[in-house]
Amino acid sequence: MESFVLALVLTLIAGLSTTIGSFIAILVKKPSSKFISLIMGFSAGVMVLVSFVELLQQGIDSSGFILGHLFFFLGMGLMFLIDVSISHIYEFEEPKSKEKKGKSIESVNFRRTSLLITLGVFIHNFPEGMVTFAGTLKDVELGFLLAFAIALHNIPEGIAVAIPIYTSTKSRKKAFFWSFFSGISEPIGALVFGLILFPFVNDLLLGAMLAIVGGFMVYISLDELLPASRIFGNEHLSILGIIAGMFFMFLSLALL
Questions:
Q1: CB distance 232 to 102 below 8 Å
Q2: How many structural domains comprise the chain?
Q3: Three-state DSSP class for 109?
Q4: For FRET with 19, which of 26, 170, 178, 214 sits at 20 to 30 Å CA-CA?
């Protein structure tokens, strides 16, 4: 029961880190392109390293080399299906086909409706709640690492949700609320996993879940975070952020 409660708490913290992004959006209003490039790259570095070093390895240890990798690729495939079904492209990425590298963030046209972005982030965050929950049940230290990695990823998502709402309504309350709503899907995902699958949890199931989530996180990093970190032409800041994120996660793993 203690692990169950801790898993829910970590998932809640990771999910509601979107509200940190909303505070940044409200205070900064238009975060600089350099800030976006750095934080996106950092988030990608954290997620890629923890996926390959911890999550995929947990799947291999639990179910074997071949099956562990198959679960990993299953996660990437599932995230691809979610991605093509429900888009949650960041405002500063639209319209992607017409953008040129090196453009300033002030020149980006904020046109995608806030509701679609919020809905997309909500759906994308749902399986991440299952991830953090499953990881904490497997290993408390792993749960903390996952919560940290997902929290980093959710901060720019909170910015993405809050910017268009605050820009169009000038309401801090609305920007905060919709950012909160987009992140609350993670503890909901954890509850669904905990209430339905918790009685059947075993090492094989947890390992499979973690390998699948590793696929989720790698897909998100490659398809979403890396392109977003380089869209303004700040390639050097992007790669520095990736290296810093990987090194930071390495230090976290070493210390734990």
A1: yes
A2: 1
A3: coil
A4: 214
